[in-house]
Design brief:
The protein contains seven helices and nine strands, in the order E-E-E-H-E-H-E-H-E-H-E-E-H-H-E-H. It has 207 residues and is α/β, with parallel strands linked by helices.
Length: 207
């Protein structure tokens, strides 16, 4: 947004050659993915800035960070301008009673998650409920051959194995595949990566 005044009043836009004003959607429900909360924070902040009433479904995987985030907002919002207008709601995905309320009463649904989660919110929505979707994500790493040649390849494999392991490839910030633009280095890197995975498997057993 090139002019913050759009949020409050009709403001001249030189490209449009007219006056425009941003209008809140109303009740905006952010459905975070079950495995990670951070993604939904982006649209929650956008919803707060644009003066919506915001409801956030908390991630069952991470119930702590949302509360810390809310406490921080409350601490900074001494005049109560923002804090009273958003709510964190803990419920498991698939709870039809709560989901149906959000679908029917929200003006805007912002849905994060896999195919099933996104599709489940497409049905039984209110007549005027809009939906924005952030569906399945696939994350990749690219390791440049020249960088690998001039670096400690075993150390890079160690850090890569850690990135894969910590989120068990569940979050979209966790890599799912690696591209290396040199066949011999790719084979060498894969050897080190396998060794590191065996170590990480003992340090961080799968849930």
């Amino acid at each position: 947004m090139d002019n913050i005044n759009y949020i409050d009043e009709f403001t001249y836009h030189p490209v449009f050659q007219g006056y425009i004003k941003a209008v809140p959607q109303g009740i905006t429900s952010h459905i975070s993915a079950g495995n990670v909360f951070v993604g939904a924070v982006d649209t929650l902040v956008q919803g707060i800035i644009t003066k919506n009433i915001n409801i956030l479904k908390m991630s069952s995987f991470d119930p702590v960070f949302p509360l810390l985030f809310a406490e921080l907002i409350k601490e900074c919002d001494e005049e109560g301008i923002v804090y009273p207008y958003f709510a964190l709601v803990p419920f498991r995905g698939g709870d039809k009673a709560i989901e149906n309320i959000l679908k029917q009463e929200s003006d805007l649904l912002i849905v994060y998650g896999g195919k099933d989660a996104v599709e489940s919110y497409r049905t039984d929505r209110g007549l005027f409920t809009k939906q924005v979707e952030y569906g399945p994500k696939y994350s990749c790493m690219y390791l440049d051959a020249e960088t690998l040649q001039n670096s400690n390849i075993q150390k890079i494999a160690q850090e890569t194995a850690k990135d894969f392991t910590m989120w068990e490839q569940s979050a979209c910030s966790s890599p799912h595949s690696i591209f290396i633009n040199d066949k011999e280095l790719a084979v060498q890197f894969a050897h080190y990566l396998k060794e590191e995975f065996e170590i990480k498997k003992k340090e961080y057993p799968l849930n």
